[in-house]
Amino acid sequence: MAAPASAVLDDEPSVAALIAARPQLSMHAFDGLTLEQVPLARIADVLGTPAWVYSAGAMRARLAELKAAMAGLPADVHYAVKANDHLAVLRIMAAGGAGADVVSEGELRRARAAGIPASAIVFSGVGKTEREIRLAITEGIHQLNVESAEELEVISAIASALGGRARVALRVNPDVDAGTHAKITTGTAETKFGIPYDDVPAVYARAAALPGVEPVGLALHIGSQIMSTAPYRAAFARAAEMVRTLRAQGLAVSRMDCGGGLGIGYRDEPDGSPAALAGAMRTAFGGMDLELMVEPGRWLVGPAGVLLATVVLVKGQERFVVLDAAMNELMRPAMYDAWHGIVPLAAGTAVGATTPVDVVGPVCESSDTFARGRALPRLERGARVALLDAGAYGAVMSSTYNGRPLAPIALVDGDRWAVIRERQAHADLWAGERVPEFI
Ligand code: LLP
């Protein structure tokens, strides 16, 4: 039995407020919703929908803002490739002076293919395979972030066999709650991530004694979509304390990787503050003679992307607006109950009186729902909308579920735009499949 459309929340921002909070978006009487200087309807006309569109200018500006906040600190930015791994995005990050944080062979190879030098790459992740560790070592990356005592032994053995030594940082699990969604919390003791805080001194000493690894410092990452500085302050204080403990034992600690996680305002609230993050780093690690690193993903690229969709039909006494985009494109609402702004592309549509509707996709799952009880202007069949803040954990988390080809991607830069990924052809959905003779 269907639940009634939930009541509209009082704090739901209007379409105008959503646009006003995002400098890369504007609404024009004739051209409608515009990303930088390119009307999104023009891109939808050419590419069809669903389609992703990214703003190069927004990505560049955000990286510059983050780097400016870090100025004065000995800090490098390693962009978390998992947030958006497109080669063009990686090129923008590299050109802006960022390295990369990778978690797989695929991401490492992509980062290298985009021209990011191995010396600017950090490899994180709880389950690096032998093949991935070997690649990281032979490429000569900046450091591997080790997530367990067991992994440390494996890395040392592989590096020794290769006749070298791998630079490693130990990922500390500080047991700090980041105050974010449980599915993206990584810094509490119950999660699989990192080395338990109290075990770190022994594991670090073991690393210093092993032939195949050179321990260079610590790493931490407490979660994603963090909107306040308090969890960072708590985690950094614990990490700084650990650096002092290790140094008191005569162990060399020269690097501190402060992780990612800085949140963005998905409604019209302000984004997490890079200046506040830098302040927390300065407070905890200032004067400690540490090379600092941050590895943000979402904050750099999330607000720079939109997902364009078309209303396929409106059903159920106007209650359900069915889009041609679905959970297989943008998974976040289904997976984390995430809220994404929805804005009509046509200026006339965007200003109409609003009623609460459920915005859903066509996939055969009840969780294929982008918004419940969302106050939206009347959307007719054929109207086009943009789902906002889809630049991070959007296209990278897509699947082809329900036989739906991967959507195309366009990149806007000022008044120019280009297709940076074609729509997948239907035949490519089964191109790698073989039907064995015995059936
Ligand atoms: N470093 C490490 C070790 C990470 O595991 C992550 C993200 C990052 C950096 C970057 O975090 P960010 O700055 O983007 O918050 N799919 C989820 C988010 C998963 C984050 C996983 N790890 C979502 O859509 O909300």
Features:
single chain; 439 residues; alpha/beta; Lyase, Ornithine Decarboxylase, Chain A, domain 1; TIM Barrel; 9-stranded mixed β-sheet; 14 helices; binds ligand LLP
CATH superfamily of the largest domain: Alanine racemase
CATH topology of the largest domain: TIM Barrel
Number of domains: 2
Poorly predicted parts: 1-8
- Count of individual helical segments: 14
Number of strands: 21
What spatial form do the alpha-carbon principal axes imply?
Answer: globular
The appropriate CATH architecture of the largest domain is Alpha-Beta Barrel
Q: Specify Rg, calculated over alpha carbons.
A: 23 Å
The assigned structural class equals: alpha/beta
Strand percent estimate: 15-25%
Bound molecules: ligand LLP
CATH class of the largest domain: Alpha Beta
Helix content: 25-40%
N→C terminal distance: 41 Å
Q: Quick check: average pLDDT?
A: 95
Major β-sheet profile: 9 strands, mixed
Organism: Rhodovastum atsumiense
InterPro entries: Ala_racemase/Decarboxylase_C (IPR009006), DAP_deCOOHase_LysA (IPR002986), De-COase2_CS (IPR022657), De-COase2_N (IPR022644), De-COase2_pyr-phos_BS (IPR022653), Orn/DAP/Arg_de-COase (IPR000183), PLP-binding_barrel (IPR029066)
Keywords: Amino-acid biosynthesis, Decarboxylase, Lyase, Lysine biosynthesis, Pyridoxal phosphate
Cofactor: pyridoxal 5'-phosphate
